[in-house]
Amino acid sequence: MDSIVSKNDLVQWMIDANRKKSPQMDIRLTQHAMGLLFGAAHQTPMFISFALYNLCKYPEYLEALRAEIQSLDSKNLASLERYDKMVLLESFLKETARLNPMTAMTLWRKVLSPFTFSDGTVVQTGNWICMPQQAITLDKEYYPEPLEFKGFRLVKEEKTMCAGSRLTTATFEFPFWGGTRHPCYAIVPNPRIKLLIKERQEKV
Fold it and tell me: Which residues 6+ apart lie within 8 Å of 168 measured at CB?
């Protein structure tokens, strides 16, 4: 009989985390895996829902968005390049994300050993720390008139994005996707999000 090889993946981690081995373990592992899969997929659908809602709430943006989309559709560009140039739509989506974060806090971390921040603040072992996502995205130091929805807030006059303002760029001023080192993989479907909004805005 071949020896059992331990894998370095999610299923193996859940197996190792189970203290009690029982005939019901397979069912329990399946339930946990399904829960994690569905839980991890919540961000993009919720984001799209808020974007569609804002298209209806702020119809004054529709004409400019349609003009941008139609202009790029008329050019012979590859799909990814075409969506990458939709700066008005990009800004509209990012402003939607800024005002509708999935959670008020993000980047939850449990302190495993005493840690000292650059300002001298010491966090002892066993405490939890996190980033106040909603407070940051509503801070007027980063976003003037932060409570007001400005769909084209991040677009320059020449219709280019401000530096570091892409929707998929994880920054300390925009922690929607998590940290800057290891952002959430939900940023990958960005072209698909634009495609869906592109199709739906024509019917709004």
Answer: 177, 187, 190
Q: State the pairing for strand pair 106-110/115-116.
A: unpaired
> Which residue's entry shows tokens 């012979």?
76
In the Cβ-directed half-sphere of 112, how many Cα atoms lie within 13 Å?
1
Cα 147 to Cα 98, 125, 140, 153, 174, distances in angstroms: 10, 37, 9, 12, 15
Structure-block tokens of residue 70: 């139609």
Note the helical H segments in the chain. 10-17, 25-40, 43-57, 62-73, 79-84, 87-99, 133-137, 190-201
Q: How many CB atoms lie under 10 A from the CB of residue 66?
A: 15
With b for 16 or more beta-carbon neighbours within 10 A and e for fewer, the 173-201 pattern comes to ebbbbbeeeebbebbebbeebbeebbeeb
For residue 40, the Cα-to-chain-centroid distance in whole angstroms is 11
Whether the predicted pLDDT of 77 surpasses 70 = no
Q: Using CA atoms in the order 148, 187, 75, 72, what is the torsion angle rounded to 10 degrees?
A: -10
* Cβ within 8 Å of residue 121, ≥6 positions away: none
Which is higher by pLDDT, 70 or 201? 70
Residue 106: predicted pLDDT: 86
